[in-house]
Amino acid sequence: MTRSAAVLVASTRAAAGAYEDRTGPVIVDWLRSRGFDVADAVIVADASIAEALASAIASGPDVVLTTGGTGVSPDDRTPEATRALLDAELPGISEQLRRLGAAVVPTAILSRGVAGVAGRTFVMNLPGSSGGVRDGLAVLDGVLDHLLDQLGGGGHAEA
After folding, report:
1. What is the pLDDT of residue 155?
2. Distance of CA 6 to the CA centre of its chain
3. In this structure, are residues 85 and 145 in contact, taking their beta carbons and an 8 Å threshold?
4. What are the beta bridge partners of residue 118?
5. Full-model pTM
């Protein structure tokens, strides 16, 4: 069975064409390399992330990954938009992302990104930096298949 995913980029500058997003394609390629059916990343202004996220989740993918809008700038609202749609948070995933990032870049602890489940969709906020995306994908690499199996009603793997 093919799993589906959606990727959203929260960047007012990229949405306006003033900046070329480099993170969305990395996430899309990573998902495709793991067999996901995923369209190219959708780039939206920070102010539009809540509507875009609700729409992406409503379409019923297995995974929605966002990048950008997780910092402390006044326009950064991705975590709030995400949290409002989650049925359950998975704080360990975001905590691990911050730990990995902080080992290299101390400011990684400023990321407010969240991860969790909305219905049967796993949702995670990745930072807007290429390093933050790389760290986030490294965290997911070891747990995503098991997480999706669990969401699909699968049992726990024996160690």
Report:
1. 67
2. 9
3. no
4. 121
5. 0.95
